[in-house]
Fold this sequence. Notes:
The protein is of the alpha/beta class. The chain contains ten helices and five strands; from the N terminus they run E-H-E-H-E-H-E-H-E-H-H-H-H-H-H.
Amino acid sequence: MIRVLLVDDQPLLRSGFRALLDLEDDIEVVAEASDGQEGLALVREHRPDVALIDIQMPVVDGIEATRRIAADPALAGVHVVILTNYGFDEYVFNALRAGAAGFLVKDIVPEDFLHAVRVAARGDALLAPSITRKLIDRYVTQPPRTGAGRGLEELTKREREAVALVAQGLSNEQIADRMTISSLTAKTHVNRAMAKLRARDRAQLVVLAYESGLVVPGAL
């Protein structure tokens, strides 16, 4: 059962999302919150698999809530998905850097919304190649961030190759095809790289790949 927490200051939207989720046999909404501070308390109480968090809220916004969740080792299993009205922008960029697994635009169709919740619960990033490309573009003018390369020396050659492909937005199956290995082996390479780089999920692995200089924008 996938356990979901909803955090949004708009009651009507929360009700709509909950109505969709409640129809699914494999998903359970464990709690709702109307602001980030209340949401953080409920995340700590319920430890959901997925926290759907609005990016702009009173008291504590979605970016700060994501940052606090990502910084708490006890909440390592919580995958944050940011909800936004505007698509990829500066707020979403900062949320991904803070540790969000991805984001959803609020006018998403129901089928895609439900699929996204299940993808996030598996620990996969909600980043289409086009969005990954935008992330890459943001790093073109930014030098590697100090300290972001912690753990790079521990990566094997194959793990580095897998990380570079994750940074292009490829799935495990696509990475397996590119590296001529099984999907299970590709997943193993990615998971080991995430552990060594202390990345919460694939989205953060993409960010770390560029912040550390492991992958250079324009070189792909």
